[in-house]
Amino acid sequence: MLTREEDVDAHALRRQGWTISAIARHLGRDRKTIRAYLNGEQVPGQRRQSPDAFVPYLEYCRQRLADDPHLWASTLFDEVTGLGYEGGYSTFTRALRRYQVRPHCEPCHAATGRNVAVIAHPPGEEIQFDWLELPDAPDGWGVGEHAHLLVGALAHSGRWRAVLAESEDFPHLVQALDQVVRKLGGTARRWRFDRMATVCYPSSGQVTASFAAVAKYYGVGVDICPPRRGNRKGVVEKANHSAAQRWWRTVPDALSVIQAQSGIDKLAVRMDDRRRVVAGIKMTVGELAACEPLLDIPVRPFPAELEVERTVSAQSLVSFDGNLYSVPPGLPGAQVRVLHRLGEDHLSIATAGRAVIARHRRAPRGAGQTVRDAGHVIALEREVLAAFSDRAPCKNKVRRPPSPAALAEAERLRGQQAAGDPAERVVIDLSHYAAVADRLRSVPSPKEENKE
């Protein structure tokens, strides 16, 4: 870039007849630079602006924020990065502000915060758990209006993991807890919950007997938050916020439960790259979590019995945890129950009256396997073959008038109708009227009776 003084000298020397090469040697600049300034392609004191890498993605960002004005910039950054954007996050957010992409929301700007306090958490001391109810679940999931996500966060480092569950009852809570601590690589010495009914009695905060057995099994203590004190477990609350805004807000309707679980796992791993400063040392959340002294967990989960209701398909199959299991034929559309004790390698399928009709080995969750019993396959094939016919279909362009038997039946019906007609049953006989008239002629009138 030429200074204003160099630009003035270059124009003066050019007017005096100097060549571009001579001017470049005199000023110690490149010939192409001198030529650009002499032709007016560049202005002194201003650097040439490189092409803005954000411009190709500007319309996409405008449309996404027009559809959802409260979409997080980090979530939008994840999307445009997947589309090929190569800039950094700070450059991306600066471009959002420069082009004024996000619509203004007056209620949000008028909202005010509240005072908070930072609670110290020693390494490996506490894991905070919380259910996150996600509204408007896809219809294909079969979980009703809300999906249920159990989030567990290490209070010291902030690393979190989450597991989708079908409901929030006790067996699903135990199953999700076990999966979360395994994803975290171990368990802290204490678990913290709010006053959920499956863990404690909400009125008193005392741990229930059933969950006390779970805590003893994993060798941890249980802490219950005071009532109406959500900030006491602020680490997991912030993880809930991230999961809701950066993942759930963008989940499409066509996504299956297994695919959605994969998406939340990827987000949780990506969040381990967040920067932290501890004692003046810069590190990531993942590096900080790797230094936490976590306890080992049992090889198998706590043996709670899981029970879910399913509908038998036309192929005599029952869906469970991303796999299909066979049942005896003749039950399409029937409601059955899948029974599975956590930690066991088998599951049972029972009727509504709890009569077991099938027992299978349990396939890995989300494996997409179809587990069939040989007896069920043979019975289903026999039933299908018994109902199969090799006869040719009936022809529909055939002349078949009514048969003699049909004509005779029609005549019989016509006779019954004739006999039942009231007009046919009325018979008029005039001889009765003639006899009555003869009797009336012989009877004297009232005047003649009075004379006598």
From TrEMBL:
InterPro entries linked to this entry: HTH_IS21_transposase_type (IPR017894), Integrase_cat-core (IPR001584), IstA-like_C (IPR054353), RNaseH-like_sf (IPR012337)
Molecular function (Gene Ontology), one example: DNA binding
Entry's transmembrane regions: none
A GO biological-process term: DNA integration
PROSITE patterns: HTH_IS21 (PS50531), INTEGRASE (PS50994)
Entries under SUPFAM superfamilies matching the protein: Ribonuclease H-like (SSF53098)
Domain Integrase catalytic span(s) in chain numbering: 119-301
Protein keywords: DNA recombination, DNA-binding, Transposition
Every HTH IS21-type domain range: 5-65
PANTHER family xrefs: INTEGRASE PROTEIN, TRANSPOSASE RV3428C-RELATED
Family statement drawn from the similarity comment of this UniProt entry: Belongs to the transposase IS21/IS408/IS1162 family.
This protein's name: Transcriptional regulator
Higher taxonomy: Bacteria, Bacillati, Actinomycetota, Actinomycetes, Kitasatosporales
